Amino acid sequence: MSDTSEGSTAAASSSTSSRGGFVLFLRQVLAELRKVVRPTRDELVAYTSVVLVFVVAVMLYVSVLDLGFGRLVLWAFGG
After folding, report:
1. Which helix (H) or strand (E) holds 14?
2. Which residues of 38-70 are buried (b: 16+ CB within 10 A; e: fewer)?
3. Rounded-to-integer distance, Cα 25 and Cα 30, Å
4. What pLDDT digit, counting tens, does each position of 18-72 carry?
5. How does it sit in the membrane (predicted)?
6. Which of the pair, 19 or 10, is modelled with greater confidence?
7. CA–CA separation, 4 vs 28, rounded Å?
8. Handedness of CA 14, 16, 19, 24 (dihedral sign)
9. The dihedral formed by the CA atoms of 49, 51, 54 and 55, expressed in degrees to the nearest 10
10. Contact status, residue 55 vs residue 48, Cβ threshold 8 Å
11. Could you please report the per-residue DSSP string of 18-79?
C-alpha cells in the first residue's frame, strides 16, 4: 500500500517540478532577451541593403542559368 502512495507523491512532485521548470525557462528566456543588442537605424538600413543586393545577385545568376539550360535543352531535343 505504501507503493501506491509513493507513486502518487512522485507524480504530484513531477507535475510541480515541470511547472517550476517552465517558469524557470521563461525567466531565462527573458534574461537572454534583455542581453540582446539591437541595431541602430543606420546599421539596419545597411544590413537590409546588403541582403537585398545579395538576393538580387543570386536571382540574376539563377535566371541566367535557367535561361541557358532552357535553350540548351531546346537545342538538344529540337524544340
Report:
1. helix 2-35
2. eeeeeeeeeeeeeeeeeeeeeeeeeeeeeeeee
3. 9
4. 778 999 999 999 999 999 999 999 999 999 999 999 999 999 999 999 999 999 9
5. Single-pass membrane protein
6. 19
7. 36
8. negative
9. -110
10. no
11. HHHHHHHHHHHHHHHHHHPPPPPHHHHHHHHHHHHHHHHHHHHHHHHHHHHHHHHHHHHTT-
Q: What are the residue ranges spanned by the domains of the chain?
A: 1-36, 39-79
Q: What is the CA radius of gyration of the chain?
A: 29
- Count of residues for the chain? 79
Is 0.85 surpassed by the pTM of this model?
no
The DSSP 8-state label assigned to residue 10 in this structure reads: H
